[in-house]
Known about the structure:
Blueprint: H1 5-27, H2 31-37, H3 41-50, H4 55-77, H5 81-99, H6 102-110, H7 118-147, H8 149-154, H9 159-176, H10 182-200, H11 204-229, H12 233-254
Helix pairs in contact: 1-7, 1-9, 1-10, 1-11, 2-5, 2-10, 3-4, 3-5, 3-6, 4-5, 4-9, 6-10, 7-9, 10-11, 10-12, 11-12
Amino acid sequence: MVPSTSAVALPVAAAVAAGLVGSFAVLRRMTLASDALSHVALPGIGIALLLNANPVLGGVTALLVGAVLIWRLEHRTRIPTEAIVGVVFSAALAVGSMLTSGEELLEALFGTEKAPGQAETLISLGLAALIVGFVLRARHRLLLMLVSSDLARTAGVKVARLDLTYLLAFALTVALGLRYLGILLMGSLIIIPAATARHITRSLDAMLAVAAGLAVVATVVGTLGAGVLHLPRGPLIITVAAGFFAVGVLIRRAD
């Protein structure tokens, strides 16, 4: 069964956002922390299910609250981001596991084949456009902040605000993939294409372009292939992305 254009549009938009946001996650050395951050959505999904509300809305709320909490703790305690995310992730996973069970838990973790409604699709496409626009406009400031926060402040960059905006963009990117990839796999789509691009490119703009492109190709191939091969869409998308990473490693070794 070939999916409709509308069913592919949202995953593709989310993939572009994932590639761009993931590039800076890789540069920030947040690869493991980024994957863990996606699990913060689980308690929000669980609470939404208990209240008979939209689970995606619950996941989005939890991700945004988690991003703000991580930002506040990072700037107030000076504890490394990875450690803070690890603590928040562990607590979120424990609470979320208690609030969800059975098929609901599997859908939260691995996504669902159910198509989103028109309103959800339009809102998600709009959010994806905002995320892409933010990363492209702020890419030089984000890079300068990574090189040196003090240097960025001297150049007039509001470091704390930029850091918070990036974390919120990351949280929203995870939210975009909750329906079709789930909590476990969306973090992988954010990290794997970006890690591949980091390995085979030598400039920031090239890395962003390649990461977004690989994420889109993996998403399209996985989505179309799932219908043909009768396999789950999410795991197939990540398998394709991992295959690109393996090819990228081989290409660099050949050079």
